[in-house]
Amino acid sequence: MTPRSVAAVLLVAFVSFLSIGKFFQQISDFFVKRPPIDGVTQFTARYQPVRSLLPDKGVIGYMTDPAAAADEVNATAEFYLAQYALAPIVVVNSSNQRYVVTNFHVMVTTGSMADQGFKLVREFGNGVAVFENQQWGQK
Amino acid sequence: MGGFGGLLLCVLAGFCAVRAIWSAPRHWSAHDPLRLALSPAIGLGLLSLVDFAVRVVLGQGNGLAVGGFAVLTLALAAGAWWRAGQAAPEAWKRSSAPIWLWIAFAIVAGIALATVLMIVVASPHGEWDAWSIWDMRARFLFRAVETGAPFNPLMEWSHLDYPLLVPSAVAGLWAWNGGEAQWLAAAVAILFLGSAVTVSVLALARLRSTTLGLTAGMVLAGTPLLTRNAGALYADVPVGYFFLAAVALGLLALQAEDGRSLAFLAGLHAGMAAWTKNEGLMFCGVLLLSFLVVIRSRSELGQRVRLLLPMVAGMLVFLAFVGHFKFHYAPANDLIAAGKSTSMGARLVDLPRYTMVFWSIVEGLLTFGDWFVPPVFVMGVWLGLQGLRRVESGAMLWPFVAASLQLLGYLIVYVVASDRLEWQLQTSVERLLLQIWPLAVFSLMLLARDSPATEKR
User: Which position among A85, A120, B217, B357 has the lowest Cβ density within 10 Å, counted as fewest Cβ atoms?
Assistant: First the structure.
């Protein structure tokens, strides 16, 4: 190799090493401080028991609280994650289905839900429950 | 057999497929390292075809998916064995590279591997697009009892028109595993990242020199964005890998005495790109168009057809499945559907849109890759030191032309089809550049001069 070629390759090697090395350092800093369970696993685990209640196919509604809906990106992410957890049931971001799965972050009473026409089927804790929409199918 | 066994079988099926097409004697041959590097991606591509055919087209379950792939692997092994009996011994004049360069490459590649492993351990479900598109589709395919369930129009937000190589391959591996295991999705992502690095090293070692191959490998392994995207379990690294492998195999076909089998493999890889992401469909057109220009210089029409036909045939293997999927299950692409709502023709002559896209791509290029120093400057200095090579045949310009045409295609799609241009540019330019990055690095290595001591030809 000519000295120019050696210099060229050394330059690439040096910058590649620094670039991936810096990234490695960032990731390893995060890696050692990471929570024991990642966010996606933690969120979707809340819906694990719901899956056993639901059939293998069909569509279910989805309801979250207004406080969550205000943060649009997080609300969208949580809706997508609920779908990710509940596949192959199709989750639609609407309460206009016979059964509705919830993702509440604030306290919601079964009484207030009943006032809106939703009867509790089962509660799973952590804001997750399945309600039956009693107005479903009525005009 | 388990998920690990399924992965090994994919590599075996891929290796047998490559050897059945690009044959070699039964003993370990000169080009077998490259064949082996090509194997995981081809194996995963074939697994995805079988899985799609069994689950979606035939509406059957795991048993047939596993059995079908096992039978295909056996058939490919028999084909490879039979073809090996007719193959001539391979010769390849190996070029040397200094030991320090091998060590530098190993260090950079090792750090990249450690980094991507930490990412997938910390975030096994990947990032946004992984759990809202790719892995979610894998879950639907694996869990669904109805063939149409993964493509229910109520989930149009999940880009139901996106092709299925990655989700079907993951679902296929879960079938071998006997249940869902997130590490298998991560393994698929890491295999594609590794293939991009090793195929660029080994193909360049054959086309130019080992020194240039290792340099390209270092650039790719040293690109944090490539590692980050692989760890995010997105499909940009797989599609970028297929772009690179298709062109590399096409170049090897042009240099071979009888390049038909390599041209077929090149087409197969372009078809797999189309089965991975919609951008791959555009790439099939780009590859064919640029290949036609390159082989135009060949004197006889018969010579041109002998290379072109196998390439088209290779593409059609996967394009047939893409077509079936698009016509029977997928809705119209959201960009195209959006474009219909307003006049595409009016956008075509809207100059400010061109300016906006152009500067966005320039900005993307200048900040690309999360490098310590922008790679445009580093590679510019590198090329300045190496010097430009006197190009004796248009073939060596082909990868550069293909990468440029693909970029031009992205520019036009942005201009014509995007309804939310600014947002789309902000969220996707980096990933589109990443798809072309392995091919761009590869093409740069072909254009650079190399030290006479290490230059192959």
Answer: A120
